[in-house]
Amino acid sequence: MIGKLNHVAIAVPDLAAATALYRDTLGAVVSEPVPQPAHGVVVVFVTLTNTKIELVHPLGDASPIAGFLAKNPNGGIHHICYEVADILAARDQLKASGARVLGDGEPKIGAHDKPVLFLHPKDFCGTLVELEQA
């Protein structure tokens, strides 16, 4: 069902510092900050040859990332994202096998302008999983 790894998302308390770390210390190509108001975050994409790193920072106090950073003040890996060929078929297969899809179960448009769903971390070895339509 899952295809390639699309990205690893890292929640960061200081987006400018994290961006500088990846750009200046690691020599990576990074995007400008991209606000995602529908998801309550601002993201910076770090482009690698085989995948991306998504630096995620809260956009407002109601951001789900704000809660994560309250528990993990230094930041950390927030989720991993896999591509799927058919997000609705993947959702239906996962639900039929007992996996929990977060939210209302309907795909939302994600930071890459493609439909995404999130899967409950308790069903995936303690890892929040995002699925993105390839």
TrEMBL record:
Q: Which reaction does it catalyse?
A: (R)-methylmalonyl-CoA = (S)-methylmalonyl-CoA
Against InterPro entries, the record matches this protein to: Glyas_Bleomycin-R_OHBP_Dase, MeMalonyl-CoA_epimerase, MMCE/EMCE_epimerase, VOC_core
Q: What is its EC number?
A: 5.1.99.1
- Extract the Gene3D superfamilies matched here: 2,3-Dihydroxybiphenyl 1,2-Dioxygenase, domain 1
- Domain VOC span(s) in chain numbering: 4-134
Provide the family line. Belongs to the methylmalonyl-CoA epimerase family.
Under which name does UniProt file this protein? methylmalonyl-CoA epimerase
